[in-house]
Amino acid sequence: MQDKALSARAKVIEAEAEVPLAMAEAFRNGNLGIMDYYRMKNIQADTDMRESISKPAATKNPKGNA
């Protein structure tokens, strides 16, 4: 099972590596404009913010060894 999980993670990493290349190609071909890019980055930032708000706050170590 761990081998399957590791293999799946490797496929995800490979796919994530192709995203910047695809975006560069879209910019070159005119399929993605600068305002589309900024809108996408704004949505990503908003999603990250919502995820960070939804996570419980980390508890601090009372001894200060966090």
Task: Provide a descriptive summary of the structure in words.
It contains two helices and no strands. It has one domain. 0% of the residues are buried. It has helices spanning 2-29, 34-54. With 66 residues, the chain is mostly helical.
Any chance you could write out the topology, listing elements then pairs?
Layout: H1 2-29, H2 34-54
Summarize this entry quickly.
The protein has 2 helices and no strands. With 66 residues, the protein is mainly α.
Regarding quaternary structure, how should these chains be classified? single chain
Tally of structural domains: 1
Radius of gyration: 19 Å
Largest sheet: none
- Poorly predicted regions are none
By DSSP (H or I, 4+ residues per run), the number of helices equals: 2
Derived structural class? mainly alpha
Order of helices and strands: HH
Query: Helical amount among residues, as a percent range?
Result: over 70%
Features:
single chain; mainly alpha; 2 helices
